[in-house]
């Protein structure tokens, strides 16, 4: 079966959307079209506004292509409701496309889920490399603290990150093992190596690594994952740059106090070697 050329794919999206919306009486959404220019770079978008207030809404008047919109919608919904609680129909509604287009881009819902994970963790790795790459590997304390700052910044930018991991981590599944083996274990490897070296050299406290990572990740991400609660209870907006910085400083201070030996009790590497 021949694939539709990329430059025509957006036009197919819009045409299919038109046919489905005219033939279906049961859709709980409204559709509108912007004028479509003659060039193939900006073809206008079908805007769909879901009437379900519990459903996150994407209305990309000018946005990425259909595949990116599907992945963005899938991330929001998987993070909010988990894999089992989301249908491709719901994802299509939030993405502002028709359901057949999901199966055009992805074999099934699990393939879409894996593509969502790959994009999310791929972005984490790319931004991590950009933020941490210039820090000398032997400057271990600075390296560890900057890793924590990066995790806070990424959680602020993608609050679904923490929600997504918590959803998948709460129950046994083949998806969880794939997520752990393909993404989470490699991601933790370098941090764990530096932590173990710090313990051996005597400037880090020897504490269980799983508990340490849970402390760091939960402390870093929950402030943003629970943004509505933070706004209602503490009257602060986690989405502002000021609060991201405040939270980053607080997390680094708490974790540093918990795992770094005070200067007067720190042991020299030479003594540890003896």
Description:
- There is one protein chain.
- The chain is mainly α and about 270 residues long.
- The chain has two domains: about 5-105, Orthogonal Bundle (Arc Repressor Mutant, subunit A), CATH 1.10.10; about 110-274, Tetracycline Repressor, domain 2, CATH 1.10.357.10.
- The chain is about 65% helix and about 5% strand.
- The chain contains twelve helices and two strands; from the N terminus they run αββααααααααααα.
- The chain has a two-stranded antiparallel sheet with strand order 1-2.
- Helix 2 (about 65-80) packs across helix 5 and helix 2 crosses helix 7 (about 160-170).
- The protein starts with 5 loop residues before the first helix and ends with a helix.
- The model is unreliable at about 1-65 and about 270-274 (pLDDT under 50).
């Amino acid at each position: 079966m021949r694939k539709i050329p990329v430059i025509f794919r957006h036009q197919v999206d819009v045409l299919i959307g038109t046919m489905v919306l005219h033939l279906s009486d049961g859709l709980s959404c409204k559709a509108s079209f912007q004028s479509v220019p003659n060039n193939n770079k900006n073809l206008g978008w079908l805007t769909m506004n879901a009437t379900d207030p519990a459903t996150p809404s994407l209305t990309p008047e000018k946005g990425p292509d259909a595949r990116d919109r599907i992945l963005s919608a899938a991330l929001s919904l998987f993070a909010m409701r988990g894999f089992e609680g989301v249908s491709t129909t719901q994802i299509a509604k939030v993405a502002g496309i028709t359901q057949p287009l999901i199966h055009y881009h992805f074999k099934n819902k699990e393939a879409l889920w894996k593509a969502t994970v790959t994009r999310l963790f791929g972005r984490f790795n790319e931004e991590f490399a950009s933020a941490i790459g210039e820090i000398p590997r032997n400057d271990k304390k600075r390296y560890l603290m900057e890793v924590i700052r990066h995790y806070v910044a990424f959680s602020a930018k993608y609050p679904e990150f923490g929600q997504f991991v918590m959803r998948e981590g709460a129950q046994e599944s083949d998806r969880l093992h794939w997520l752990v083996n393909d993404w989470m274990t490699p991601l933790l490897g370098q941090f764990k190596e530096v932590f173990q070296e710090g313990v051996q050299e005597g400037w880090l406290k020897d504490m269980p690594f799983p508990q340490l990572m849970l402390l760091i990740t939960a402390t870093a991400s929950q402030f943003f994952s629970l943004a509505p609660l933070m706004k209602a209870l503490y009257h602060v907006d986690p989405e502002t740059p000021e609060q991201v910085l405040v939270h980053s400083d607080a997390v680094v201070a708490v974790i540093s106090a918990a795992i770094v030996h005070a200067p007067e009790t720190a042991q020299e590497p030479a003594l540890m070697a003896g």
